Amino acid sequence: MIATTAVRNRPRTLRAAAVLGALLWTTSACGKDSSAKASEPDWQEPSSYTYTLTSSEGERALIGTFDITVRDAKVVKAVGLDESARRVVKQLPDQVPTIGDLLDELAQAREDGAHQAEVEHAGAGHPVRIWLDWEENAIDDEALYVISDYEPLA
Fold first, then answer.
1. pLDDT tens digit string along 125-134?
2. Strand, helix or coil for residue 101
3. Mind listing the pLDDT tens digit for each residue in 58-98?
């Protein structure tokens, strides 16, 4: 009876192993790889555009909401929309980034092996959210950039 049961259960055991293997493969394939860019759109930053940046999280200077105008790939105008952003614009105007600067920071975080370095894109391809977290267990090393009201200029 034992031999018959073992033979009868072998297909069930093999099926269970196959299902478990497929599940493990699927789970690892779906994991986030902060260095992968394969699924990201090939968006090219125009030389002139406007956008609103809300920068939050972490302990750093660039905190607040800004209306930003970029011409010839340089920030030419930044308006702070809250007290923190107004302080940055007044005291550290060179800290106000272009979208390209934000993408460079994302690329550097990925290169440095940051715990998280993620980007979400709009249907048109431009980034709308960049999340950075350099160390998994560190406090206040994160950065969240939300990009809205993006408009290319002629």
1. 999 999 999 9
2. helix
3. 899 999 999 999 999 999 999 999 999 999 999 999 999 99
Place of tokens 């460079």: 104
Residue with tokens 């939050």: 56
Report the predicted TM-score, pTM, of the whole model to 2 decimal places: 0.74
User: Beta 142-152 vs 49-56: how paired, if at all?
Assistant: antiparallel
Reading the block at residue 60, the tokens are: 């750093």
**CA 83 – CA 89 distance, rounded (Å):** 10
From 132, 147, 153, select the one nearest 58 (Cα to Cα): 132
Amino acid at 124: A
Contact by Cβ (8 Å): 136, 51: no
Which of these, 79, 21, 70, lies nearest to 50 by C-alpha position?
Answer: 70
